[in-house]
Design a protein that fits this description.
47% of the residues lie in helices and 16% in strands. With 266 residues, the protein is of the alpha/beta class. A seven-stranded mixed β-sheet has the order 1-2-3-5-7-9-12, sandwiched between helices. Strands 8-10-11 form a three-stranded mixed β-sheet. Strand 1 and strand 2 form a beta hairpin. Helix 1 packs parallel to helix 2 and helix 4 crosses helix 5. The mean pLDDT is 94.
Length: 266
């Protein structure tokens, strides 16, 4: 048995992921990349490493959450689409897809415990988990908003949305960059439950433990079979297509205008 343990994962001096495993083998994997858990290359590699290490160590399940009070995950770094060379771009988005594939196809049960903002890439990360629980909020915190920036999401994101939400819902939401409150997200299938913030982690941990009670061989086989259509469109062709789709002058102008607006807002 693992026993209770705590680890930090990072490729630099400051840990960007904290992992705490309780005595029953349920791991809490907390994102802690300041200030808003943007998906830096460092964070994506650290989460991927942590997930694979937990599998090797014999963890029973994983609760994916955030160490910050008002954000789950802010999504990708937008400047990766404007400032990176082709090699840097492909390294970054290969890591992005590898992370999402690792969580999506993990033999471990995965539960997302969401409190605060989870737009775009944050929503993608949540959707790769087997079950998603959110605390309540009046803000529109969840959704695939890439189209608002003139970006066509990676092929696997569109396939993941269709798998999770249904084709018609995914068509509308992805094309219209729809964002939702947790209550709306629950209605449309982005999340599975809403619970008070002070019980979010305990409820997610109990849910993960119940999921772990299903024999792992059957659960893993079913997961891989049902998610094959998402998994098979991940990889180099998806990354190449994203590179090509974001090179146009119109897309680059939209992205640069968005980044300029963020700078003015600071």
């Amino acid at each position: 048995a693992l026993g209770a343990s705590r680890r930090r994962f990072s490729t630099a001096s400051q840990p960007v992921v904290a992992v705490d495993v309780d005595s029953s083998g349920i791991a809490k994997l907390s994102l802690q990349q300041p200030p808003v858990n943007a998906l830096t290359l460092q964070l994506m590699q650290a989460v991927t490493s942590a997930m694979r290490q937990l599998q090797r160590d014999g963890a029973k399940a994983v609760v994916l959450t955030s160490s910050f009070p008002n954000v789950f995950c802010a999504g990708i770094q937008i400047n990766s689409l404007t400032d990176y060379s082709e090699d840097q771009f492909k390294e970054y988005f290969t890591a992005f897809e590898y992370l999402m594939h690792t969580v999506l196809m993990s033999p471990l049960p995965t539960v997302a415990a969401i409190h605060g903002a989870a737009p775009a890439g944050g929503t993608v990360l949540a959707l790769t988990c087997d079950y998603r629980i959110s605390s309540p909020s009046e803000k529109q915190t969840i959704g695939l908003k890439e189209a608002a920036l003139n970006i066509s999401p990676p092929h696997f994101v569109q396939a993941l949305a269709a798998y999770t939400l249904g084709q018609r819902r995914a068509d509308y939401d992805v094309m219209h960059a729809a964002m939702f409150t947790p209550a709306e997200a629950l209605k449309f299938g982005y999340i599975d439950e809403i619970v008070p913030k002070d019980t979010l982690l305990s409820h997610a941990t109990a849910t993960a433990a119940r999921m772990a009670a299903i024999p792992s061989e059957a659960r893993t086989f079913i997961k891989h079979t049902l998610r094959e259509n998402v998994s098979r469109v991940m990889g180099p062709r998806s990354v190449d297509a994203l590179w090509n789709n974001t090179r146009s002058e119109a897309v680059q102008n939209s992205l640069k205008q968005y980044l300029a607006g963020l700078k003015k807002a600071k």
